[in-house]
């Protein structure tokens, strides 16, 4: 874990006055933990990002800090596995919290708003490779994609998340604090694959009313090709 100062003022400075195109949203994955004393500033930053249309922020709570006194109520082993997969794919020497992964391609300490802003701007400026459209028809999610060039194979992921929840931390490094978490991933499923050529359509049955994110990502923890959400 990393020890970092509160960044509420820096968060405001980094994002005020900035604008980006909204038709090519940037995926920001935050690997975090309720038991990590360095994570609240990053959790607050993710909350700031949640208010933007040009960014799709997701909080993936990992389970490897549960042993230090507080079991994270949102943690899932599959999120730790995903973080380790990114580390292997990117040649990163270690995993840590808070870590943000931008569009599946670059990582940054999650509580450094200026660096996060720079990476978001960098990825938002890139030309989209796929035109992705997601609609909901009753209990069915309809995905439509069109390659905008020479496409590459990608995996189709569907994520359900909870917009926010406040948690009273009883033990561990954040004992006595009541913290608000945003865009908490509750379920993550890989549902299909696409060769990236021409057009693609897929339908998935949905249960419940939680918001949905759809991600097209190159296999083996590669770059995110496209992302979309339904609130």
From TrEMBL:
Look up the signal peptide feature and give its range.
1-21
Check the record and name the InterPro entries matching this protein.
DUF1223 (IPR010634), Thioredoxin-like_sf (IPR036249)
Keyword tags? Signal
This protein's record includes keyword Signal: yes
Q: Which SUPFAM superfamilies match?
A: Thioredoxin-like (SSF52833)
Q: Does the keyword Signal apply?
A: yes
Quote the protein name from its UniProt record.
Secreted protein
Q: Which organism does this record belong to?
A: Pelagimonas phthalicica
